[in-house]
Structure formats: structure tokens, C-alpha cells
Predict the structure.
Amino acid sequence: MSFEEKLVKALEALGAKDEASVRALFVEVRDALESEKRTLLSTPAANDADRMERAKALRDRWLSRRNGLLAQVDEHWLKPASRELKPVVGLEFNQLRQLAKGLEVEELIKSVAVDSRSAVVGRDPNDPEGLGAGKGKGPTQAAEAIGFDPTLPGNRRPLGSIHPITRVQREIEEIFLTLGFWIESGPEIESVYYNFDALNIPESHPARDDWDTFYIDSQTVLRTHTSPVQIHAMEKYGAPLHIIIPGKCYRRDNPDATHYPMFHQIEGMAIDQDVTFADLKGTLDFFAKRFFGDQTRTSFHPSFFPFTEPSGEVAVSCPICDGQGCRTCKQSGWIEVMGCGMVHPEVLRRGGIDPDRYSGWAFGLGVERYAMMKYGIHDIQLFYQGDLRFLEQF
Ligand code: DAH
């Protein structure tokens, strides 16, 4: 007699007259339930709808209120049970009900999740010790059975891209790295000494004014340029020295198309014996041709910076119109791209280097300006607004 046939008979008719025989009957029912659940989880299905349908059918077979198998146990075993057997039948029936909760569709999905996890570490949830090796079916089949397919592709998160400022910074770094320079960095919160005094910038210099510089306290500023790292590097490494120093700088500027209170500079410095202005010109001309294109010409004009002597400004022939004159170069054919000069002997001395033995050159450039020229961007603020319509173009 199958267990289903037994369910529609009274206990008495089944010869279950004591606790032990009642328990044995319930064991049979619970075994049937578990085995049907296992079969569902390990049988592949034709498609999603099929899977779902089969999971629901199993649930209804056992749990349907009107004629599910549990309702029959209630109807034929529990309700008519004799006074003596009622407690044990009630107890067993409760256990069976608990077990049957595992047939709710949501519970089945959870079992599949556990099933897949165990599979990752190579275990079968029904056989955690691996005693019946090969008995269990794979997690994919189990998952398929109830409409969850772990082999489907997941949700893709969109990948970001390199910010144009970082992109240009790396490009410039790359050029100097090929020339044997290395990359150095320093603090963005800087002492007044490194930002100004050690660079020979006198107390009276307008750049030291409260209106141009962010002061944290009277001796501490947000660095206004990358030049203080020249001093840190000289103190740290001495001479000879060939470095470039990319980094963020800060000035009290109101944002407009060409100003922003935070921006990026790249500083360069070369110190060795017998370094001359000719080395400076040759190196920067090479750099300009690499960055802006082979046709680029450079032009050096006298200028003034307290930390270089002599000082200069470098202009390049406009890469947009090739020096013919256009909107970008304001019809002049030339664009200023950096400040430079021979390192002032006082600055070498502050860095602990003997200016009688060594000489050097330095330059400083603004990365934003290079990025704006390279990509034809006319408003510096676009770099920092985080607008994806802008950023996704890079
Ligand atoms: N520090 C200067 C500035 O922020 C740029 C500069 C000019 C750096 C000349 C240098 C240099 O190293 O030699 O305007």
C-alpha cells in the first residue's frame, strides 16, 4: 500500500494501535515529502515557466487546504484519533507541518541558494560529509528546477573612465619618465616656510597676501604651487636630481572660465654639475614637440620668479592654427604654456645643495590649461562639476 493510500484510511484500519506504530507511519510520510522535494530540486526543467509550475504543483500537492496531503492526514488520522493516541498523532502532525513549510516556493528558492553555495566549496547539502559521492545533482540543475538560474549574466555596473586631467597629467609624466626623470610628490598642506621663504619669496610678495592664499593658521597654508616640493626633494635626495612633481594646488580665486580655487600643476627640476640654460631650452623644446606635435616651435621670453634667475616664460606655436592666429591663441599665433628658469643659488642653498658645485633648472606648468588646449575645452569649471555628459567623452 502506498503512503498516499494509507492517508485516506483511519489509523485503526492501518493497525496503528500504539505510539510506535503511529510514529512509523509519520516517518514514512516525512520521508516521502523529503524525497519529493529533493527530486524537484535536482531535476532539470525545460524552461522558467515549467520550473515555476513544478514548484507550485509540489507545494499544492502537500499544502493545499482542501485536498492536500497534509489536509488528509488531518482529516483521516488526527481528527478521528482515539483519546490515547491523540497526543502522539498531534505531535507528529506538527512536525510534519514544520517540515512541509520547506515546500513554500520562497523556501525552495532559499534551499537552492544554500545548494549553490555548498557546491562552490564542493559539498552536497544533502550529503555534507561527501559520503554518497556522486549522488547529488549539480547546483545549476537544482536551481533550474525552481526558476533561478545562477549561470545568467549579472547586472553590469558601468565602468568609469580616466578623468581628462589625470589623462593629461599621465601623458606629461610619461614624456619626462622617458628622459630619466622620476616622479616626486609632497604635502598639499604646507608650511609658510616651504611654500614661500625657502623659495626666496619675500614677506612683501603679493602672493603671500591673505587674498591670494588659503591660510590654515599663520604658519600653514594650502600650497599655492608645487614648487615647495623642490625644497623637500633637495633636502631628501641632494644632487644630482631629476624630478617632476605633479599635484593639486590651491588659490583664493573665484571660479570663472579660467580660474578655479583648486587646480593641478606639474613642476620639473634638474640639478647636476654644469647644467645650463641650453639644457633647459633643449629639454622643454623636446617636451613641447612630444606633447603638442612635431611641428611645434617654442619661444622663450624673459620673466621674473623669485626662485629662478634668470627666469623665463615658454610659449608654443598655437597647435590649433599652427601659428597662423585663431581664437584660441587670440590671433597671436603663440600660447604661453609654462614658467621656467635657472634655480636661484639661494634656493639651492636652502635645499642643502652647494651652488658653487651644482646648478639646475626648473619649470612649472598648469595641467588644466594643457587639457583645455588638447581637448578644446573653454571652461575650466567643467572639469570639476562631475557631469557625466562631459566626463563620458574621455
Ligand atoms: N611656481 C610658479 C607658479 O605657480 C611656476 C613656476 C615658474 C615654477 C618657474 C618653476 C619655475 O619651477 O622655474 O606660478
Notes: Residues 253 and 260 are 6 Å apart (CA to CA). The first strand starts at residue 182 and ends at 183. The pocket of 3,4-dihydroxyphenylalanine is lined by residues 225, 227, 267, 305, 308, 339-341, 362-364 (CB under 6 Å).
